[in-house]
UniProtKB/TrEMBL annotation:
Domain Aminotransferase class I/classII large: residue ranges: 6-302
Protein name per Swiss-Prot or TrEMBL: Aminotransferase class I/classII large domain-containing protein
């Protein structure tokens, strides 16, 4: 959480701004769009103009806007399997067909035989929930698939600010320079707090008018006081400083978690540890993930089984372990409970 003093100053700055008599820009206030474009350039190396940024209420809200604006009725969409349940449900609730595509440590598996679709939704920086990073060859293959089928790609970079012991890979959006096919989603929920309800999308110039129109019809834009407070935090460098502090904090928690769980190998092994705020504990042998999760819950350690993120039956037994809200000591205590439950 950002320090309380910065929060108070941000809201005070927002309160001092005059209250106009009209709605704001449905794409977001120009100052915030400029601050977000500079932020994503610093944090993710993505060079994009403020005019190509649309402020949203988070990644799911952004996906709803995209679906409303750009997908014809009854479109097909490629989706990671297993993948982010809520994003999948956005597509299904809108009447589109979701085509599950397997993922592994290298991300979404795309090849010449991959089916056509109007859109592909991916989490390449830290696949949710397995945690792998999409390799550069896979990224290029996905872009080629989109070109071949005249499709769009939604790149959900929901926790891309948090990387550990691994060099950053270029975003799909930056690799698509000039291609006009990638919509990049970012959120401040992991950086600041989910309650701020602020995120953004970046889009190729040709797609921005349709997205702004959809945002206008959906809710006419983001609350101005929130935009002004977030702009103050971004422009003053407070968010960048907080990201650096949070990255060190989460790195320590992640190290504690991995150290405590390492002795479980080969009975259980960790994946997805290079980035993000969760890891995936893969269970081997005769271990059953649901049974293990129930035993952990009885000891007040909560984990989600991998099968809950899949559309089809999965044979892999694994637990998704989130650590974003934990201290080092809490991570160690929880990991020791897991070791006790999994000890042969």
């Amino acid at each position: 959480m950002l320090d309380a003093r910065a929060w108070r100053q941000a809201w005070a700055a927002a309160a001092r701004a005059p209250v106009g008599g009209d709605y704001g820009d449905p794409a977001g206030e120009p100052e915030l769009r400029a601050a977000l474009s500079a932020f994503v350039a610093r944090q993710r190396g993505l060079a994009v103009g403020a005019e190509n940024v649309v402020v949203t209420a988070g990644a799911l809200h952004a996906l709803n806007v995209i679906v409303r604006a750009l997908l014809p009725p009854g479109s097909a969409a490629l989706f990671e399997e297993p993948g982010y349940r809520a994003a999948r449900q956005v597509l299904l609730d809108a009447g589109h067909t979701v085509i599950p595509v397997p993922v592994d440590d290298g991300g979404l598996s795309i090849g010449p035989d991959s089916p056509p679709a109007r859109l592909a939704y991916v989490t390449p920086s830290h696949q949710f929930p397995l945690g792998g990073r999409m390799s550069l060859p896979r990224r290029l293959a996905l872009l080629e698939w989109a070109r071949r089928h005249d499709a769009l790609i939604v790149e959900d970079d929901y926790d891309g600010e948090f990387r550990y012991d691994a060099p950053p890979l270029p975003t799909l959006a930056s690799l698509d320079a000039g291609g006009g096919r990638v919509l990049y989603l970012g959120t401040l929920s992991k950086v600041l707090a989910p309650a701020v309800r602020t995120g953004f999308l970046t889009a190729p110039p040709a797609l921005v008018p349709a997205l702004v129109r959809a945002r206008t019809l959906l809710d006419f834009g983001h609350p101005l006081p929130v935009q002004r407070a977030v702009t103050w935090l971004l422009a003053g460098g407070h968010v960048d400083r907080h990201v650096r502090r949070a990255r060190r904090w989460h790195s320590q928690v992640r190290t504690a978690l991995t150290e405590e769980l390492a002795p479980l190998a080969p009975r259980a092994t960790l994946g997805g540890i290079e980035a993000g705020l969760h890891v995936c504990l893969h269970l081997h042998g005769d271990l059953d993930a649901r049974e293990v999760a129930a035993r952990l819950a009885a000891r007040e350690v909560h984990a989600v089984t991998l099968d809950t993120y899949a559309m089809r039956p999965v044979t892999s037994q694994a637990l998704v372990l989130g650590f974003g809200g934990l201290t080092v000591d809490e991570a160690r205590r929880g990991a020791r409970v897991i070791r006790g439950v999994l000890a042969p």
